[in-house]
């Protein structure tokens, strides 16, 4: 079996929903020990979201709700939105905390979230799957309070492996429509949505989608990239935005 993903054809949001509905019963972590990677992501989110006890937190593309469950005792309220009704069902089944709620919703509309009602918006591993990310970012800017913070963790389109794989025709996408943003494109998207952009990198290597030798090489080069900071060695892109 190939270690590389087999891209799923996508024509509509219904195709995206079907893909994640199928994952919902067992949303496993592909890229390493689940608890260790969750704690790593939470540290990154903590640093840039600067959570406070009074915060209302919106998780766009919440999946099974793992990030909100981990934050539940540290925030006032948490709301998870996901396109997949099966993911929302899984999140509700796994959650008993009274301050958390989960709803089916479209990131490009956020119809159930009032304007200027949220302190922090999280978007972890989701931007790359959105068909119209610019629309979603404008909605995120709409629902944030003036002092709000937006934090997204996604893929770096400038990473050496993704660029080489595209050149060689090696699949790296799970959905045919998946995209990877360069740091410059991410800044423009945030700016155009009405959010002051702060774009950098975070430690992420997609080890579950790579042969073991290549995965090890990517990990080594990522550590090197954290010291010398060339963008092409970092496969994780971190976006932070505040209302302009």
Describe the strand arrangement of the main beta sheet, using strand numbers: 3-2-1-4-5-7-6
Overall pLDDT confidence: 96
**Contiguous uncertain segments of 5+ residues:** none
What CATH calls the topology is Rossmann fold
Written as H for each helix and E for each strand, in order along the chain, the element string is: HHEHEHEEHEHHEHE
* Total count of helical runs of at least 4 residues: 8
Per the principal axes of the C-alpha atoms, what is the gross shape? globular
CATH homologous superfamily caption: Vaccinia Virus protein VP39
Radius of gyration: 17 Å
- What is the number of E strands? 7
Could you tell me the strand content as a percent range? 15-25%
Please give the largest β-sheet: 7 strands, mixed
Instruction: Quickly give the structural class.
Output: alpha/beta
**At CATH's second level, what is the architecture?**
3-Layer(aba) Sandwich
Count structural domains.
1
Helix content: 25-40%
Distance between the termini: 48 Å
Q: Tell me, what is the CATH class?
A: Alpha Beta
Quick structural overview:
The protein is an alpha/beta fold and 244 residues long. 37% of the residues lie in helices and 21% in strands. The protein has helices spanning 13-23, 34-49, 66-71, 85-94, 133-143, 160-168, 183-193, 212-228, and strands spanning 56-60, 77-82, 100-104, 118-124, 144-155, 195-202, 236-243.
